[in-house]
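Late entry, written up from scratch paper. The run itself happened at the end of the previous shift, but nothing got recorded in the book at the time, so transcribing now.
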Amino acid sequence: MAEKTTEKTTWESFKAESETFIGKIRDLIREGNVRRVVVQQQGQTVAEFPLTAGVVGAVLAPVLAAIGALVALLQDCTIQVEKGKPEQTRDERSAVR
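Output as recorded:
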C-alpha cells in the first residue's frame, strides 16, 4: 500500500488482488474524510467515483458493486483513495506554534 500526501489531501493506493479490497474500501470510507475512489489499470484511470461526507449504506452499495465489477473484468488494477485531512482546531494550531 502506498500513500502520497499533499497539503489538504492524502492518497492511499493498493492493488486489487484479492476479494478483500472491497472490505478495505468500505473500512476506509467508514473512517471518514474519503473524497474520491479511483480505479486505474496500468497507470490509466478507468473509473472515478466522487464521494461526499456522510455516504452510508444504500448509497455506498452501488459504488462498491461497480468497483467490484470493474476489477473483476480488468486485470492488474490499482485502487486509489483520496482522503481529506481533518481541519485543525484552534487549540491544535496554537500548540503547533
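Confidence is low (pLDDT under 50) at residues 89-93.
(Scratch paper discarded after transcription.)
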